[in-house]
Specification:
The chain is of the alpha/beta class. It is built from 13 helices and twelve strands. The strands form three sheets. The protein has a seven-stranded mixed beta sheet with strand order 2-1-3-4-5-11-10, sandwiched between helices. It has a three-stranded parallel beta sheet with strand order 7-6-8, with helices on both faces. The radius of gyration is 21 Å and the shape is globular.
Length: 371
């Protein structure tokens, strides 16, 4: 992990949430010994399987993977092995990857599911093999042991409130388009629910899409269709569930000749999204501090692999369609606009000014005092 990523891990984790197992004791059986699942390993020499869903979104390879690996190493004195695989948005591939992890006898699995429902059978296979499962970022179905993510309904509310703020008195002057995420991602449904709870009755929703695989090109196609159906002059704003899709939406808006662009929301604080915010092309993103989420997943995974409990870091219980009362850690989020770039992604070391303020964005950065 490079220096910038270490700064992000330390600063965000320290500022957003303390996740320590220092006071967390081992579960004891009646005879006084440690109660370990059959897949648990003694000591720090554990093998952790890490399965991430895709590489279309920059966060997984840039943030989640290195942060989780670093935290696991810190917790195990560098003795743990992390076995990594990325499903590249293919649920069948991810199920095969779980099978491989079981064959390789990992002691615990961290799974960010491509398809929360399709992964359920593989989660059960892991459990039957004595391997605990931590659901990461998306609430996988099946008998998972723990879960960490952000308050995803709150994410949608934050996006909806920001869009209403951007529209102001013009909220009733036209129609908005809602560009939701993929139906295979349970988070997308929560983002949508949160957004609707804020937007319904306050704006007219002219078109709404569930965007296949979260792909920017699909969002671009959907947005072009919405502009054609509604009339480009009738679209006053766009709810986009993440930054990648916001990029596709904005490309469609520009191609249609809209100037100025209507406000567009986003999520993930991707570098391209932050640069669009600086340039005034995208109104906001949702900054999700990945370090505490990754830290929570790592701590729960290490504890479960060692036959311990992680009760000290649990701050919620969440129900999936198949499992009730899953011990969970939910992380708060921040609305990122041009007004708080300094206090969020720059302060936490996620990006440097040089990374954001390339030649293309230098003038806009200067206007915002980013230097």
């Amino acid at each position: 992990m490079n220096t910038r990523m270490r700064r992000a891990a330390v600063a965000v984790a320290a500022g957003a949430m303390a996740v320590s197992l220092a006071a967390c004791g081992s579960a004891k059986e009646a005879g006084g010994g440690e109660k370990k699942p059959s897949g648990a390993a003694a000591g720090d020499a554990i093998k952790v399987g890490l399965l991430l869903p895709e590489n279309q979104t920059a966060r997984y390879e840039k943030f989640d993977k290195p942060l989780i690996e670093k935290k696991i190493s810190d917790l195990t004195n560098g003795k743990a092995q992390v076995v990594y695989a990325n499903a590249k948005q293919d649920a069948t591939t991810q199920n095969s990857q779980v099978d491989t992890m079981i064959t390789n006898k990992v002691n615990v699995l961290i799974i960010d599911a491509v398809d929360a429902k399709a992964i359920a059978g593989s989660v059960k296979k892991a459990k039957d093999a004595g391997i605990p499962v931590v659901a990461y970022d998306r609430l996988a179905e099946g008998p998972i042991d723990a879960y960490t993510s952000f308050d995803n309904e709150e994410v949608g509310k934050v996006q909806g409130k920001a869009l209403l703020e951007a529209l102001g008195d013009k909220a009733k002057d036209g129609q908005i388009v809602m560009m939701n995420g993929s139906v295979t991602d349970p988070n997308a449904a929560l983002f949508k629910k949160g957004a609707h709870s804020v937007l319904d009755g306050k704006v007219t929703i002219g078109k709404e899409y569930d965007t296949k695989e979260w792909k920017p090109e699909n969002a671009n196609t959907n947005m072009a269709g919405a502009l054609s159906a509604l009339g480009k002059d009738k679209v006053i704003g766009v709810y986009s569930a993440n930054d990648g899709m916001a990029g596709g939406v904005i490309t469609a808006l520009k191609a249609a000749g809209l100037n100025p662009l209507p406000p567009v929301t986003g999520q993930d604080a991707e570098l391209a999204g932050v640069q669009r915010i600086v340039a005034g092309e995208q109104f906001m993103s949702v900054y999700k501090p990945y370090a505490p989420e990754a830290s929570a997943a790592a701590e729960m995974a290490v504890a479960l692999a060692q036959g311990k409990k992680a009760d000290d870091i649990i701050n919620n219980k969440v129900d999936s369609p198949t499992t009730k009362g899953v011990p969970s850690v939910l992380i708060p989020v921040v609305s990122l606009t041009k007004n708080n770039i300094k206090d969020t992604v720059l302060k936490d070391g996620v990006y440097t000014v040089d990374e954001i303020c390339t030649d293309k964005y230098a003038a806009a950065c200067a206007t915002l005092g980013l230097k």
